[in-house]
Design a protein that fits this description.
Blueprint: H1 16-30, H2 32-45, H3 50-75, E1 77-80, E2 84-89, E3 95-100, E4 104-111, H4 113-118, E5 120-127, E6 133-141, H5 142-153, E7 175-180, H6 183-191, H7 194-218, H8 222-229, H9 237-264, E8 268-272, E9 275-280, E10 285-291, E11 295-302, H10 304-309, E12 312-318, E13 329-335, H11 337-347, H12 370-395, H13 405-419, E14 421-424, E15 428-433, E16 438-444, E17 450-454, H14 457-461, E18 464-470, E19 477-483, H15 484-500
Helix pairs in contact: 1-2, 1-3, 2-3, 6-9, 7-9, 12-13
């Protein structure tokens, strides 16, 4: 630990100013307009040529952020007690944070290139009831971070099982490596990133706008005249456009793969006592940990690209407050089907009997086939007929094109129906869904917060119901078109398991 004052408060390394500088620039990037407005006003009001304005403005901006970063380091203090971590922070508005060790769900670390050379770490904490990282210790010694992590780990958490002598039940006493990712996995992560496809969708309107603006600028230029008169014949405009689009796609995928290497290089997942911990990163090493007793649900996803690779992405959700869709998630970026099945046993040891994260498991039960009839009628037939009637007077028989939506909708609904499946276990439940790929969610009955049953008029006539499961993390889990008798039996059984469980849900 660093030297403490008379009251036992510690200051971190002076290199913590670099951490705060990065935080300041991140905040400015997120709120660029509001953050840079004073600088823009200064540049407009300052008398002088533009070059002098820019030099003085940028210089004042850089100097101001450096001074603020140093002040934030100077006023930061922390103190470790027997049961909690106390943090004092703030320059103009002083705050004190009290993080109880028993509430800590995960201890995460980051180590950039500079900190790695200096053997420093930035430590952050995920706590129960928080929607994100609640506190952090910037630029502390690696040994100090490890001592603090071990100290927090061996403090009994709320809801941890204890034996008759008051000792914690810790079945795992050795560190085991569960997963290591290779360079090939980095490529798969990059190629399957959702951000790439989002950029591809947006690139059409953007490129059209750029082409229009660029065309107006160079419309009368000598370059256009030269290209118009040149008779090279090497490629047509269509070929050039296709090659340009291919080049853009290759560039996007290359950037995505590079990002995967930066974030997940040498990714390793280990089990250490009751904690699962992942490390990875090329320039900045990230370490994330999760107490498996705090995990509320597991979600495995496999979209169309991951299906081609025969891989899955796993997300472990922890309890959070505030918005239910902003919980603290522990992520395994990619894994095989067998590793996925094994990880279910690691996260829910002893309570995974009869459950499986494998979407192709034969024990999944389908929902009622009435799901097909109601959705095809409500989403396909009714909108198609209304559209046909609405445009009949103006378009005539051409309005019947809208009726093609009915078979298209039927194919989509049929595919979603085939994907739906429920797997019942003594201790939990698994829901499978999807359209082209798969999404599998598994949770334990004792972690359920609330169960609700609803019926539409159509479901009421067919003695069907929709069940919604509410956990402390993530949105409600919806199981549609169950038999009403099974739905009520499931609700009663889940509530019984919640009330009779001797282990807390969090």
């Amino acid at each position: 630990m660093s030297a403490a004052d008379a009251d036992g408060w510690h200051r971190t390394s002076p290199f913590a100013a670099l951490f705060y500088l990065g935080k300041i620039y991140q905040a400015i990037a997120k709120n660029a307009v509001q953050s840079l407005a004073p600088l823009a006003a200064f540049l407009v009001a300052f008398q002088g040529d533009m070059k002098a304005k820019l030099v003085i403005g940028i210089g004042a901006f850089v100097l101001g952020t450096f001074i603020l970063a140093i002040l934030r380091y100077w006023f930061f203090r922390y103190r470790i007690t027997d049961t909690s971590l106390l943090i004092r922070d703030g320059v103009f508005k002083r705050t004190q944070l009290d993080i109880k060790f028993e509430r800590v769900q995960g201890v995460n670390t980051e180590q950039n290139v500079i900190f790695r050379m200096l053997e420093l770490l930035t430590v952050s904490f995920d706590t129960a009831g928080s929607s994100g990282q609640e506190g952090y210790l910037p630029a502390i010694r690696t040994e100090s971070a490890r001592e603090l992590r071990d100290r927090i780990r061996h403090v009994p958490k709320i809801g941890d099982a204890v034996d008759s002598q008051g000792k914690m039940d810790r079945p795992d006493t050795t560190t085991r490596t569960l997963l290591r990712l290779t360079a090939g996995d980095m490529v798969r992560i990059g190629l399957s990133s959702n951000r790439v496809f989002l950029v591809v969708v947006l690139i059409g309107p953007i490129s059209e706008y750029v082409e229009q603006e660029f065309g107006e600028i160079v419309e009368e230029s000598a370059v256009v005249e030269f290209l118009t008169q040149a008779q090279t014949g090497l490629m047509s405009g269509l070929t050039f456009g296709l090659l340009l689009a291919l080049g853009v796609l290759i560039l996007l995928f290359s950037i995505s793969v590079a990002g995967a290497f930066l974030r997940f290089h040498r990714f390793e997942l280990v089990a250490d006592e009751g904690v699962l911990r992942s490390t990875g990163g090329l320039l900045t090493r990230h370490e994330h940990s999760v107490n498996r007793s705090k995990v509320q649900s597991l979600q495995a996803n496999q979209h169309v690209v991951l299906r081609l690779f025969r891989r899955f992405r796993l997300r472990a959700r922890q309890a959070s407050s505030g918005r239910v869709d902003r919980g603290s998630d522990f992520i395994v970026p990619i894994c095989t089907g067998q590793v996925l099945v094994d990880l279910g046993l690691e996260f829910f040891p002893g309570e995974f009997t009869g459950l499986s994260l494998d979407p192709r498991a034969s024990r999944f039960r389908r929902i009622s086939p009435y799901y097909l009839r109601s959705h095809i009628v409500l989403i396909g037939v009714v909108p198609a007929i209304l559209a046909t009637a609405l445009f009949w007077n103006s378009s005539g028989i051409a309005a019947m094109v809208a009726l093609l939506w009915i078979p298209a909708c039927a194919v989509i609904v049929w595919q979603k129906y085939r994907r739906y499946g429920v797997l019942y276990g003594q201790d939990g439940l698994v829901l499978r869904s999807g359209l082209i790929g798969f999404s599998v969610v598994v949770w334990l009955h004792r972690k359920v917060q609330r169960v609700s049953i609803s019926q539409s008029p159509f479901q009421r006539r067919r003695q069907l119901a929709t069940v919604r499961i509410f956990l402390a993390a993530g949105p409600a889990i919806r199981i549609p078109y169950m038999e009403h008798a099974k739905a009520t039996a499931l609700r009663d059984y889940v509530l019984y398991r919640v009330e009779s469980s001797e282990v807390a849900w969090h």
